[in-house]
Write a structure and sequence with these properties.
Layout lengths: L1 E4 L2 E7 L12 E9 L2 E5 L6 H4 L4 E4 L9 H4 L2 E3 L8 E3 L8 E4 L4 E4 L11 H4 L8 H8 L9 E4 L9 H9 L1
Parallel strand pairs: 4-5, 5-6, 9-10
Antiparallel strand pairs: 1-2, 2-3, 3-4, 7-8, 8-9
Length: 172
């Protein structure tokens, strides 16, 4: 587990359903945020014990298919009713959202921004996307209005240096 900023951590774990996809590796990334109310886990996989032993632990997901270890942890999984410290923002795929953490100027992104970059062209033509590059950019362009200082993809490494620039390159 690595602390990115005060009260914001990240770690990785092996995805149990990884299938040699060249666009994302077997290790996926999760995040945790300490708030005044407890801990919020983002797309948790194999979370460190010190985080899951907290009294008030909540789980939020960037996508319904990013449940990973959420159900076996036994903590509340928040759907549309997000904790006050997190707001839902647009994403590209149906059933997906990015998650904005204003206090950290951090944006947690699932499959729409793998590695903090634009999705591969093949994903645009997948059965679950069915869109064009212009559709992709249009859906994500509102994220450029956020003052993003940390871009936190759940596939790949966090982007701290020029995070807003990385976001602009991906959706611009």
């Amino acid at each position: 587990m690595h602390e990115l900023a005060g009260g914001l951590w990240t770690w990785t774990g092996r995805h149990p359903e990884w299938n040699d996809d060249p666009h994302w590796g077997p290790e996926v990334r999760s995040y945790a945020l300490r708030t005044g109310d407890g801990i919020i886990l983002f797309d948790p996989i194999s979370p460190p014990d010190e985080l899951t032993r907290e009294v008030d632990v909540q789980v939020v997901l960037t996508a319904e298919w990013h449940g990973r270890d959420a159900t076996k942890l036994g903590h509340t999984v928040r759907g549309d009713d997000l904790p006050a410290d997190v707001t839902a923002q647009p994403a590209f795929f149906p059933g997906e959202r990015t998650l904005w953490i204003p206090a950290q100027s951090a944006l947690v992104a699932g499959d729409s921004l793998p590695g903090g970059q634009a999705i591969p062209d093949e994903w645009l033509e997948s059965e679950w996307a069915k869109g064009t590059r212009d559709d992709y950019k249009a859906k994500l362009r509102p994220l450029l209005d956020l003052p993003v200082e940390l871009l936190l993809p759940t596939h790949g490494d966090p982007v701290a240096d020029d995070a807003h620039g990385a976001l602009a390159r991906a959706v611009g």
